[in-house]
Structure formats: C-alpha cells, structure tokens
Amino acid sequence: MTSNALKHFVRRLASAVPTLSVVVGARHSVGGARPFVGGALAAACSFLAPFAHASGYLNPRIADPHGHPALSNPYAIYFNPAALGGMKGTQVVVDGTLAWRTLDMTRFSSALSPQSPSSLGDPTYVAANSGSAHASNVVAVPFLAASSDFGHRNFFAGLGAYVPFGGVTKFDSRDAFAGNPQARGAVDGPQRWALISGTQQALFTTAAVGFRLPDERLSFALSGSLVLSSILHNQARGPAGNDDLVTEGRALVDVSGVQGSMTAGAYWEVLPDKMLRVGASYAVRPGFGETRLPGTLRQHYGTMSSSKDIDLIMTYPDVIRIGAAAMPWGPSLELRIDAEYVLWSAFKRQCVVARGQSCNIGPDGAELPPGGQVLTALTRQWKNAGGVRAGAGYFLDEATELYGAIGFDTSAVPKTTLESTYPDAFKLMGSIGARRAIGGGIVLGASYTYVNFLSVDTGRQSLFARAFPSAVPNQDGTYQSKVMFFNVNATFAF
Asked: What are the φ/ψ torsions at residue 239 (nearest 5 degrees)?
C-alpha cells in the first residue's frame, strides 16, 4: 500500500471513529447402590464446555476459521447473527469437520481413597487405582446454514443447524488387569472413577432475523435456538464414594432434553469497501437459567442392578463475542481479530436428583434436609474465562484466499475440581487454510486447526473430599490433551 493510500485510510478511520478503543478480556477460549451416580454428571462438563468455545470438550473452533463475529457469511448464524447484514443475496454453506482428540492422564497415589487405610499397603490396590490412562477418539462435526437479504438491503434472515459441542470419549483398556479376580474393574483404567466412556451431543437449530440501516452501514439481529441435548456417561462407583476394589460397581447416566437459547448482535461497517468492520454479540445461556435434563440412572453393584428416573441439573454460561476485520492496505490482505468472554462463574455444581426434585445442598456438600432426593451434587466452582484469536487472509487473486490464525484460550476449570471428563487447561491454537472460487457462485475451502492444552498438575484436590452426596474419588494427577481439526466446506451463492 502506498503512503498516500495509508494516509487516506487513517483519515477515513479518524472521521468515522474519533476515539477507538479495544478491550479484550480473558476468556474461558460438561442406601445401597445409590451413591454410584456420584461423579457421573462429570459428563456434563464435556457437554457444557463448548458453549465457552475453546474451554470445551472437543470443539474449540467450530467450523471453518471464517466463523468470526465481524465476518459476513452464513457462519454468522452462530457467532454473530447481525453480521449476516453484511451479505448480499443468498448464500448457503455446507461444512464438515473431522476432529481427533487425544488425552493422557496420570492418577497420583495421593488420590487413593480406600475403604480401609490398610489397603494402601496392598500393591494390587495401588496399581489398580493409579498410573497412566490414554484416550484417542475421532468425531465428525457438521455445520449447515443459509442466509438471504431477499433482494432488500434493509432486512435479512438466516437458518442454521450445527453441533457446536459434543463428542465421544473412550479410554483404552489395561490388558494387564484382564481376568484379575482381585481387581476386575481396573481393566478400565485408573481414571474410571470419573469416566470410562461417554458420548455428548448438542444439536442447535437456529433462526435469525435482523435489519440493516444502509446509510449508516449498521445491522442488528436476534436469533433463537432449540438445543437438543443428550449425555450418555459410564463410570466406576463404590457405595461409599471411594475407590475401594471390593465394592466397585458401575453407573450409567443417560439423559436428554430440549432447551431454548437466544443471541443478540450488532455489526457495523465502519468504513466502506470492507476497510473496517466490527461486530459484537451476546449469547444468553441455554435454558435461560437452570437447565434440567431428564433421563435414567442405571447401576450395577455385585449381583444387584437398578434403574431410576432422574434429572441432571446444571447452569450454563452467557457468552460475549467481539471482533474486527480490516483491509488497511487494500483488497489483497485482510487482518482479523476476535475474542470471547464466557461467564462460567455461574457454574457452581452439577446435580443428579430424583425426577422432579431440587438440588438443596449445604456448604459441606450434604443434602438439606436429608431425604435421599439428591443422588449426587458434584462441586464445580468454575471461573469466568476467555480467549483471543488474531489472523489474516491473503487474496492471491479474486478467486483464491490463503488464511491463518493464532490464538490462546484460558481454562475455566480450577485445579481443585479438574478430572478426566473435563481436562481443561490454558490452550494455544493455530490454523491454516485456503478457499477457491470455482465458478457458478461456488467457493470451496479447507483448513487445519491444532489446539494444544498445556500440561496441568492438579496437586491435592481438597474440594473432592466432600460429605455425601457430594463425595467422589479424588482425581489428583497430571493431564495433557491436544485436538486437531480437519475442515472442508462449500459455499453456494445465488
């Protein structure tokens, strides 16, 4: 860009926004055999997290990296519905991501909680409940959306269906314990007291409407979503909430439900010709407060099996997104930045209760008043968290774009409640991709994103030592995870 062109850009920017300040917050970026359910709702951590984007179970960046609150394309149905106002005509995007995640966990001997202290001297008990565990899983993540201005520049609408979070986790078996009569359950790994295997899914179906003020180049929009949620979670449990081998059993939580959610957004083309655009959105938590997922709890303990109707109770966060995109050196290069801030501090605990009951828990984790209606109350005490991503798109010509981005994301999960169902951590991420218009209004794209979770050593987790029904086996250990996303997409313009 010539010096005169740069001066022209600065003058236009100054006239449009006399004072421009950008604030980026830290972002976040699921009697008898009854106690078996303790900790089973840890699956919901996986289920919840991706609302916080990178502080999530499997999808730190849904869809192609063009998903951004200040970019006008059908991905905006999720990131910022008001950005649909920057589109002309009708567009449809079909997007698919193949995600591969690995997780390595080592449970410390300090996490052991036997029924009898003498078990600490039993090498079989110690080996069965400590050491390393590994999981490696692949899942497909779809995204489909369409938007149109219906031939008018002052009204627009869009529809979308996508899965912004969810996935599958299954830990490898430890063959050394296969057939061992003293530790049959240990074949499922030392992490089994939190998670053996689980599937989580949240399907969003979203409709958005908005209006545009053409002269001001300003758009506003609202979207509403139906969220179809399901969790299937399998874990080891003992009747006293510890990791004793003699009384070890299994608990399976199977819940599903429908919640509502909505997002409000604004989008401003500060300077024409895409020289500067900004966008912001506020997503209200699914359920608009406390969420209740009905289902069943199936337990197996020795020769006894049971099934009970339950509700899983949790609270989602609200999510704030902001972003900007600019072309200060002309149409060949676009600079992009976006951030999220997620109010995870609303997530204090998860409860499994008898169908229709409430989660009344005292400061020590005991039910108030005692009555056996709260089967498990898992302490979470998450914190607000956030992340930032910066990137660029370089246009080789009118038909071809090369793009990339780097970013970081903080963890919403404190060390005191971290476990293998939700091994969150500070994350570093990077992505590269390319898009090519092939004619007839069709654009094809592909990208690769790598997310590295920094290793976490939990130390001693005091919050796991709670009164019944909040008692669960301690999960002291180290956690290391990474996720790789392979994305392909096609956009059709009419």
From this structure: -65, -20
Q: What is the pLDDT along the chain (494 residues), one digit of tens a residue?
A: 444 444 443 344 333 333 222 222 222 332 333 333 333 333 333 333 333 333 434 355 677 889 999 999 999 999 999 999 999 999 999 999 998 999 999 999 989 988 888 889 899 999 999 999 999 999 888 899 999 999 988 999 999 999 877 778 899 999 999 888 889 899 999 999 999 999 888 889 999 999 999 999 999 999 999 999 898 999 998 888 889 998 899 999 999 999 999 999 999 999 998 899 999 999 998 889 888 999 999 999 877 899 999 999 988 889 999 999 999 999 999 999 999 998 989 988 889 999 999 999 988 888 999 888 999 888 888 899 899 999 999 999 999 999 999 999 999 999 988 988 888 899 999 999 999 999 899 999 999 999 999 999 998 876 666 788 888 888 999 999 999 999 999 999 99
CA–CA dist 477, 460 (Å, integer): 9
What is the distance in angstroms between the CA of the first residue and the CA of the last residue of the chain?
A: 33
Domains and CATH numbers, the chain: 23-493 (2.40.160.60)
Q: Are 160 and 204 in contact (CB under 8 A)?
A: yes
40: DSSP letter: G
**Backbone phi, psi, residue 433, to 5°:** -170, 175
Query: Would you mind telling me the total number of residues written for the chain in this entry?
Result: 494
User: Among 363, 328, 337, 334, which residue's Cα sits nearest to residue 349?
Assistant: 363
Q: Which two tokens stand for residue 372?
A: 């056996």
Q: pTM of the full predicted structure?
A: 0.85
Q: How far apart are CA 446 and CA 19, in angstroms?
A: 38
